[in-house]
Design a protein that fits this description.
Layout: E1 16-17, E2 21-27, E3 35-37, E4 44-45, E5 53-58, E6 67-71, E7 74-79, E8 90-98, E9 110-120, E10 128-129, E11 132-134, E12 142-144, E13 147-152, E14 163-164, E15 170-171, E16 181-187, E17 194-196, E18 203-205, E19 214-223, E20 226-240, E21 248-249, E22 256-257, E23 269-270, E24 273-277, E25 282-283
Parallel strand pairs: 2-9, 13-20
Antiparallel strand pairs: 1-4, 3-7, 5-8, 6-7, 8-9, 10-15, 11-12, 13-14, 16-19, 17-18, 19-20, 21-25, 22-23, 23-24
Subcellular location: Membrane
Keywords: Calcium, Membrane, Repeat
Organism: Pardalotus punctatus
């Protein structure tokens, strides 16, 4: 009597990740399509020798779409979309390994691996002169206004010059790096009249100016660890006569007349002289013509 026995393989084993918990530090400037976690590190064993199907999800809101797997049967994780440290700096990925397709009606055994992704801010932006105005929603560009100041003709100032809209100052917008900024004058400094403190950005005078000219300085702010990261600001220095007298009004009281029903923008006329517009004038004895 010959008895033939066939042993059927029952699908009764879960897939097993060799490393169910992984972490990666990913630089912000990592290139799209770069591998983040290699396929070999996400290997799965299955005692039932089934084909394994993978699925990747994220647990952190607004971090979908940045990371993906190469294919349903290839768990290698790669960067699918450019990173931005200002949008998020930490996320957690869940990689599912199943021994049946997701849509299969058959009982499925599943394993899960957790991958923690920590973003590392990269040196992607040059210094920003302050104050500045952000012009894009992603905070990638900040535009500053020109600086301006004044010096008196034939006078030597020993203090740092006062500038508008504020002191000459720049920051590293990649704030976790916060590289040191140094300053230098790279243009417009005729005859070397001005100097800038490399560390503080303070502008000072080296010599007096004897003609009522204006200087249009170009000041560069450079990151110490990366000289390719720099910005240039314009500083206009006007040379003026020293003001010895305050301005004053020609009259203490001005009287005017307006007519009922006149449209907006109509002239106000001198009281008693309905054909002569009212003019309010101030005089400054330091300057001519009157201001």
């Amino acid at each position: 009597l010959e008895i033939l026995v066939t042993i059927l393989n029952k699908n009764d084993n879960d897939p097993v990740f060799a490393q169910p918990n992984l972490s990666r530090t990913v630089p912000e400037d990592t290139k799209v399509n770069a591998t983040i976690v290699a396929r070999e590190e996400l290997s799965v064993t299955d005692a039932d020798l089934d084909t394994i199907y993978y699925e990747l999800t994220t647990t952190v809101q607004d971090t979908d779409g940045y990371f993906a797997i190469r294919g349903v049967n290839n768990p290698e994780i790669y960067l699918q979309k450019a990173l931005d440290y200002d949008k998020f700096n930490l996320t957690t990925l869940l990689l599912y390994a199943r021994d049946r397709p997701v849509t299969s009606p058959e009982p499925t055994n599943t394993a899960t691996a957790t991958i923690t992704i920590v973003l590392e801010q990269s040196d992607t932006r040059p210094p920003w002169f302050q104050p500045c105005t952000l012009i894009h929603a992603d905070n990638s560009v900040c535009i500053s206004s020109p600086y301006s100041g004044r010096v008196n003709i034939s006078e030597m100032s020993t203090e740092p010059l006062l500038l508008e809209p504020g002191p000459l100052y720049a920051i590293d917008p990649d704030y976790t790096i916060n590289d040191r900024i140094v300053y230098s004058i790279v243009g417009g400094n005729t005859d070397g009249v001005f100097s800038v403190d490399a560390d503080t950005g303070n502008l000072t005078m080296n010599k007096i100016v004897t003609s009522p000219d204006a200087f249009l300085l170009q000041v560069m702010a450079t990151q110490v660890s990366n000289i390719r990261k720099y910005s240039v600001a314009t500083v206009e220095i006007k040379v003026i006569n020293r003001s010895l007298h305050p301005p004053y009004f020609e009259k203490g009281i001005y009287n005017g007349t307006v007519f009922v029903g006149q449209p907006r923008g109509s002239f106000v006329y001198q009281a008693g002289e309905p054909s002569t517009p009212l003019v309010i004038a101030a005089v400054d004895e330091d300057y001519f013509p009157d201001v």
